[in-house]
Request: fold
Amino acid sequence: MIGKTTRQVCLLGVSVLALGSTPALAQRTGPQNAYDDENVIIVSANKREQTLQETPIAITAVSAEQVELRGISETKDLAAIAPNVTVSGATTNATASVVTIRGIVTPGDETQGFDSPIGLYLDGVYLARSAASSFEIGDIERIEVLRGPQGTL
Reply:
């Protein structure tokens, strides 16, 4: 049989070992964030943040710095950042814009009541009519132009 003193010494030793191993668990570091690089553009085209290279759709993304360098100040200037995109004024309403992506045209105000095949989102809010699509671009984080079918948005 083990004496009372020996048992207490063993329990004390096990307790010291258990307390000593706890800080080692706290020192573990997780994987480094892959988005720490300044040159990586983060897009939210799939309703979650991904890098531009990880996004499996045809997308053109421009950061706020690039928007400022290119002098983009309103939606009519978006044609300068993405291929196959044109933005022109509507024929019946000076405040509306007609956006064309790959030959697909948003209906102007002369086709009231028709949904546009091109979706414009501002801060995650869908702009349903072309009259709302002509606005000045102020303090923005990025511009994303998604080409092709986007049925899940």
User: Anything to note?
Assistant: Residues 56-147 form a domain with the Ferric Hydroxamate Uptake Protein; Chain A, domain 1 fold (CATH 2.170.130). The CA atoms of residues 31 and 37 lie 15 Å apart.
